[in-house]
Design goal:
Length: 128
Amino acid sequence: MWSNRAARTRSFSVTPEGRDTQVAWIGTEPEPPYQRDDFLTMLYSGWLAGRATLLGLLDAREARLRAQTRQVRGDMARLMAQHPAEIKDPADWRFCRYVLQTRRMMLAQTELLWCQSMIERLKDSDDG
């Protein structure tokens, strides 16, 4: 069962037939990951716009990543406080949620470090 935090919370559950289908699917070869990120496309084309535009893009991305890490950190803290045993049990869905949140946090932190290094690189570079 899963719920989102939107004003209109929706709950989902899996039917027995759906569970069987999902369990069979879990063991198959996943599709290669696909990532489309307009930010990266804009950054790649940034040489056309100049350093100030690139810094603006990176500053905005950094702010979004900071907000994301705050949210994920809060989600993980709630899981740890409310379900300390369940997040250690691979047979419980909260374990899976917790490890995916851990991955999400690590990816966001890595990208945040990358943005900070790019900002420093741009600040230290010449315009010309």
